[in-house]
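Teaching assistant's notes for section 4

Start the section by putting this record on the projector. Ask students to predict, before seeing the second block, whether Polyprenyl synthetase family protein will look compact or extended. Collect guesses on the board.
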Amino acid sequence: MAEPGARLELGARLSQTAREIETVLAALLPLPAGPERRVVEAMRYAALGGGKRLRGF
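Reveal the predicted structure now:
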């Protein structure tokens, strides 16, 4: 069985990695000003919004 400290470290690393992934996704999906804005907004919501979404872990 894993020690409590190891579980806390894993949880912290998972949280940090998830934040890093969200930062990269936000950079990859900038909001354009043109007609494609609505589609990109939907893509950003799916990748970065709450609820069911793409998750790093």
